[in-house]
Amino acid sequence: MDLSQASIGHSKYSNQIRIPPKPAQLSVKEQVSQIPKPKNPQIRKCIKQALTLIFAFCLPNFVQSQVIEGTKTKAIKQATIKISEIEQISDKDKVVMKVPNPHWEIPEWTYDKTNVIFKQPASEIQTSRAEIRETSPLPDTTFAGLMDNGTSIPPDVHGAAGPEHLVQTLNTEVRISDRDANALFTTSLSTWWAPMPNNGATFDPKIVYDPYADRWIMVTPSGSGIDSRIYFGVSSTSNPLDEWHMYWIDPDTTDALWYDYPNLGFNKNWIGLGGIMRNSAFDAVEFVVFAMDKEAAYNGEDSPTVSRFTTTLGSAIVPSFTYDENQNEMFMISTGEGNDDG
């Protein structure tokens, strides 16, 4: 499948990327702009108001698509390593967490009542509670997860479950356990990626389990400058303690931007990786998607093909997890025209 192009649709609420490409279409707004304008200013004003109203009603359910050209690149295989042979760390090596003061009490908050403009009587305050249609089942197993060592805020917690194992990732550590939470292996995030170039500033790890091929997929950015890299690993079996193929991608060959906020997904053909490309001032300059040949990566090939797409629409792009074995297209989504209130 040729991934030299991808189509992006966007609405008031979200952007959607779909691979392979679809034909471009003019938006309602673009079509309106092509209508000849009357010379009479009053008539032109009325038509503009009417068309604006029509466009406003159409917008919530309207999706525009366009074609975005991609560029071909390669992922570089750095090593194949057996995870169980990596140096581990124990809980004794961790920083001792501070214990909250058990005698601390919430201080009484006082204020000058003369400064209050209006206060709604408690009797008039109404609360609404959504009707629960179905009771969610309780977990059949509950246990404490991997505690961070207190050196990274936030810890960026992530994890995935396989047939026989759980893998938890933090900014500081990686733990593999059985499904009863018995720890089998724990190491630091930097040690996990020890063979990779420019290792030492890893963050935001994400891990998923692919049930199509019984493999684990893990991604971690490294560096927030010209040395920015994307570390990418796939397991060779369903056991995360076995060998992994470790790759890296240069997210910007011009060294102008660095890669942040990874989002991982897949379908039966591709591994999708979305993210934000930032400048040195931490501004989000563009949003990027990498699509990697999944079969090539799983086979441990030295240079799997990767297609790179960028856009300035919306926000960080999130690839979907597609479990339909007949679905060849990869769907992605991001927010558009959002605000702090969602």
Strand content: 35-45%
Q: What's the structural domain tally?
A: 2
Question: Helix segment count?
Answer: 4
Rg, alpha carbons: 25 Å
- Class based on secondary structure composition and strand pairing: mainly beta
Instruction: Provide the helix percentage.
Output: under 10%
How does this model look, in words?
The chain has 342 residues and is mainly beta. The chain is built from four helices and 19 strands. A hairpin with a 7-residue loop joins β12 and β13. The strands form four sheets. The chain has a five-stranded antiparallel sheet, with no helix packed on it. Strands 4-17-16-15-14 form a five-stranded antiparallel sheet. The chain folds into two domains: 34 residues, no CATH class; 216 residues. It is 10% helix and 35% strand.
Summarize this structure briefly.
By secondary structure, the chain is mainly beta. The protein is built from four helices and 19 strands.
